[in-house]
Structures are given as C-alpha cells and as structure tokens.
Amino acid sequence: MNTFLQGRLALATCALLMAQAAVAAADPPGETGSAVVASGTVPDEAARAAILGKLRSIYGHQRVIDRLEVGGVIPPPGWTDRISAALDDTLRQVRDGRLEIDGTRVAISGTVANEAQRQALVSDIATALSPAYTVRSTLRVGNNAQASLDEVLARRIVEFRSGSATLTPQGVELLDELAGIIRTLDASRIQIIGHTDSSGERLANVALSLARADAVRTYLIRQGIAAERLGTLGAGPDRPLADNATEAGRARNRRIELRVVH
Q1: What is the rounded CA–CA span in Å between residue 218 and residue 122?
Q2: pLDDT tens digits, residue range 35-63?
Q3: Alpha-carbon torsion (108, 6, 26, 153), positive or negative
Q4: Which long-range contacts (CB under 8 A, 24 or more apart) does 57-62 make?
Q5: How many CB atoms lie within 10 A of CB 254?
Q6: Residue 163 sits in which domain range?
Q7: Same domain, residue pair 19 and 135
Q8: Helix (H/G/I), strand (E/B), else coil: 3
Q9: Which of 2, 22, 23, 88 is deepest in the core (most CB within 10 A)?
C-alpha cells in the first residue's frame, strides 16, 4: 500500500520561534491502509484541534494519529486559519509525498497522476495561503496510467478456477494490487476485457470471458473503485496474444486486460 503524503509538524527556529507544520497521510479516497500521522509542535490547542479536525475530515477519524505537542512557538498572524485552509481533499491526490510548512515557507513533494493535477495542487495551496507565504513544489508526474497497468499484467494473469468465473486466491491478490494502481489514476475510466483461448465453442468462450470481466468489475467495486469508472467486454477467443496451437500459447490467451479509456 503506497503512502502518498507523509511528514510532521515541528519547531522552526528563526528570529522569532515560528510554527512549522507538515502532515502525514496515506491512501486515496475509499482506501484503507497506513495511518495518517501529525507530529511536532503547534502554537496552541486551537491550532492542534483545527489541524487534526481537517485531517480527520479528509482521511477518517480512525486513521489519524495525533503526536502533536502544544506551546513554545509563535506563529505568523493568521497561521492556523491559513494552514487549515491549505489542508483539503486535493492532497489525497499525492502519492509517496511530503508536505512541510515552516512558518510562511511551504514545501510539497510526491507523485501525482498528470501535469494538470500537479499545477492545480500548487495553485490551490498558494490560494489558500497568502502572498506572504512561499510555496516550493517538487511534485512529479507519475508513470503513464496504461503502462502502469500493463506492467503488472505482463508479469501475471488474473486467475480463475477452470471453466468458471470464480477468482482463485492468486487472482484476488493480483486484483488487490491492481485496485491500488487504479485508485491513483485520477478519474480515468477502465474497460475490463475478458479473453479466452480458442478451445470449445466460440459463443461459450465469449460468454465465459464476459462473466470473468464482470467478476473482476464486481471485485474492484467491493474494493472501493467507483462502479461508473468500470466497464466490461467479453472478447472470447477473438484477440489472441499467442498461437492457440500450443498449451503455452493458450495459457497466454486466457487473460484479463485493463484498458484506460480517455
């Protein structure tokens, strides 16, 4: 499970003792996994409550771990309100990242799905703050969405019990991995395509391939992927990757394909 936003709240020593903040977070909407940690020092109980409240509204109460200390720092004017405004749902779009706020200096790093998302995140943070704050971004755009899915499915196949649309434990494990990737793909739609080898009657193979695609869709929905993002198609034996004359070729042709739909 990818941790996509992590960090801490801590002291910053300047001419004045300033409040420094950063927040730790873990998973995109609907995903369970790593805890969300906020640690370090904030100026008062009101700041602590405001920051924790925003984190809990974004990530859920149970996942937020409070390691904040209170007192001993003097924040810039309006610091608590500015930081609370900067902590919003768009931060969930960042994977493997870090947000740090040191007085009026803000730094964010990590991976996002596309360039538009990268620019919007930085703009949203700057807008929530004020011209007195500086925002430094080292956000990077992640790998191509289709390539990410293809890389996983090139190494393994979604397995089903022979002649059925019932997933094996190995098939479920692979779908769990794929679900994690799909959650990072912004709002992209995914077409799930079932394929078979050429053994048996074509119409029966088309029906089986569609049933397997539907089973994958059902499982992904149960893992928190929005139903409207997932479509299915049964291609049967019509799109082989390899020669059906060999067992190895037939095994390659019995597969699930995931295609990003733009």
Answers
A1: 36
A2: 677 777 888 899 889 988 988 887 778 87
A3: positive
A4: 58/25, 58/87, 58/88, 58/89, 58/91, 58/92, 59/25, 59/26, 59/27, 59/92
A5: 23
A6: 145-261
A7: yes
A8: coil
A9: 23
